Amino acid sequence: MSFTIGKLAAAGGVGVETIRYYQRRGLIGTPARSGGIRRYDDNDLRRLKFIRAAQAAGFTLDEISELLVLEESDDRARVRTLARQRIAALDEKIAQMSEARAALARLADQCAASDKGPCPILAAFEQ
Fold first, then answer.
1. Which range marks the domain in which residue 105 is found?
2. Same domain, 10 and 45
3. I need a surface site. Which of 33, 42, 113, 126 has the fewest CB within 10 A?
4. Coiled-coil intervals in this record (predicted)?
């Protein structure tokens, strides 16, 4: 199947500028023009979907670039290492968000406890 950049973007659930950005980053190739129009194929769509799925799993574009290289080399050990590093980063972010949630919940309780003085939530953000 052949896609224009607009059709590729639509099929991949992204905007045209996202495709162009991925091209500048070297994540997706830029096909030669044929009749003045660049034509993308199923491999480009597969790669775009790979990038989007990897982003959804929390990988950065730099990591995704490495994963795309590793996909061709079948270096499972390195892929596992990247996945474990991403899991550790996600665990850290979850811990930070849990702390932020607990702090905000405490402030909301303090705010609800009294109608006098400044709101503890707003006061905390001013510090």
1. 75-113
2. yes
3. 126
4. 80-110
